[in-house]
C-alpha cells in the first residue's frame, strides 16, 4: 500500500467525479462480481483511488480526458459512424491499478477508453520497500485476529480524533523549524521507503491534511497489495477460499486456484495504447515492477510503451516538473 492512495493524489481537472477523501474510509477492499469467467463488472469499484474526469480539449490537468474526434459532438455514441469523443485515462499508483482493473474487466469496446497513461502503477510488487515488508509481515495476522473478534471488521487507516490530528500536524510544522530534526525525519523516511526521492515531509503539509479531516486508506486496500506481493502476480482481491471467490467472481472460480489474474487477461485491452511511466528514484513502486507490467502487456499483444523519469513516487503528482508535463500533453493529444 502507499500514501498516494491515502491522499487520492491531486490531479487538477474540471468535472471531477471522485468523491470526498473521506469516502476512502468506507472502501472495503478490491473484489467484485464476475459474469463471464473474466474479472467481474463491479470488481474495479472496490479499488478506489485517484481517477478523475475532464475534457482534454480544454483542460491541461491530469485525469481522464475526453477529446473530440472527427465525428464531432453529436446526439450520442455512434454519430457519424464513430464516437463523439475519445477518453484518455491517466492514473497514478493505485489509480493506475484501478484503471487496469476497469479496462480489463470491461474490455476496450465497453470501457470507452482510447488510451491509458499509467504513472508508476501498482499491481506488480516484485520489489518492495522495507515499510511494505513490515506491512506484509504483520497485517495478515492482525487482520485474521480482528476477524475472529469481529467477523465484519473493516477499518480506514487514518489519524483518529481532532485532538490527535492537531498534535501530529503541529509536530510536523515544528520539525520543519528545526533543520537537524527535519534531516533525521527525511533520513528515516528514505530508509523505510528504499531511498525514495519524494518530498514526503512537504506532502504531509498539504491542505487536505488538517485537524478537521484527512484522507484514509482501507485496511483491505493494503491487504490487496499484500496478496499481490505474496502471489507474485497482479490479481484481484482474494476472499480467502474457493467458495468466497466463487461468490464474488463467478462459479467458475470454485475450482480455480485463487482469484482472477488481471495481468493474464491483458489481451482484453485489445488495440488500446498503454503508456507506462516509471521513476528511477521511486522506492515505493520501483521501476522493476513497472517493467513487469510492460513485459506482460507485450506478451499479450498490447501496444505498450515504457519510459523512465528521474522521479520519486510522489514527484509524478506533487511538484510536477516540466519534462513530465510536456510528455503527458504529447500523449494526450494523440
UniProtKB/TrEMBL annotation:
Bias kind Low complexity: ranges: 1-11
Disordered: annotated segments: 1-41
First and last residue of the signal peptide: none
Protein name as it appears in the record: Uncharacterized protein
Compositionally skewed regions (Gly residues) per UniProt: 28-40
